[in-house]
Amino acid sequence: MFDLLGAALPSRLFLGTAQYPSPVILADAVKTSGASVVTVSLRREMAGGRGGEKFWSLVNSLGVRILPNTAGCHSVKEAVTTAKMAREVFGTSWIKLEVIGNHDTLQPDVFGLVEAARILCEDGFTVFPYTTDDLVVAERLLGAGCKVLMPWCAPIGSALGPVNIMALRSMRGHFPDVPLIVDAGLGRPSHAATVMELGFDAVLLNTAVAKAADPVGMARAFSKAVDAGREAFGSGLLEPRDVAVPSTPTFGRAVLS
Amino acid sequence: MKLIVNGEALDSVAATLAALLAELDYEGDWLATAVNSDLVHKAERVEFRLNDGDRIEILSPMQGG
Description:
The complex is a heterodimer.
Chain A: E1 2-4, E2 7-9, E3 13-16, H1 23-33, E4 37-44, H2 51-61, E5 65-68, H3 76-90, E6 94-97, H4 110-122, E7 126-131, H5 135-143, E8 150-151, H6 165-174, E9 181-183, H7 189-197, E10 202-205, H8 207-210, H9 215-235
Parallel strand pairs in A: 3-4, 3-10, 4-5, 6-7, 7-8, 9-10
Antiparallel strand pairs in A: 1-2
Chain B: E1 2-5, E2 8-11, H1 17-23, E3 32-35, E4 38-40, E5 55-63
Parallel strand pairs in B: 1-5
Antiparallel strand pairs in B: 1-2, 3-4, 3-5
């Protein structure tokens, strides 16, 4: 079990719920992968509509932890109000806090993020801030009351994977006791394995699974990669060397020349 | 009274937020409401009086990443 802020989670894989070909495939992907947390959002409901009810019923049937987001918010006010609305609807104080600062890269507005995080932490929320890999911003978020950090490894939906390994390694080393969840930019299971090998505590992804030709198969593949990466991290990875070192013993080698 | 509901302008006779939801056929525990960018709790909707020009957001659970 992965103990995350007092929650015993059976998996270190978190999945988004958007962009799947159908609700059935979404449900199959979550169940097959064993993902322990799914992200959800709030959007305008049509008059007389029941779309939200159907989706909420589906998510509840999955038996996983819910992490609402503030996706699409570009200001502190928007994000804070959305978080409060999400807490009322979803019945959880967990919130994936997004304050977007750039339309092209969907890069977080880290200044607004810290401000919103402080407001929400003081209001009793458990804030999961979607942030960059900047150490100073991370310090400010922790100072604002965050107990967990969610750095990107590449822009949302880009599938580029970890583009700055050094920054991620530095983050892990700088905050050894803070749960770190890589959020955004993962495109392949090997990307997930890589960040888990670095010692990250979990990964959150959406597009790479939802837009795969076979989302259920891809969800399973990511699940295996996350487990493999975590086990490798815990087992002590061999450091790279610049010279060859024979793996077969040289002692007792026959002389046949 | 002129209101903006989920970005659309409309005329309403509803005096309260709860009355507006009923008028527009919104119902369900899964709805969240905000007026002029501030959350209005479910329990407060019956008492919450609307004013001309208010901006109302009515949200529900949706897929998210």
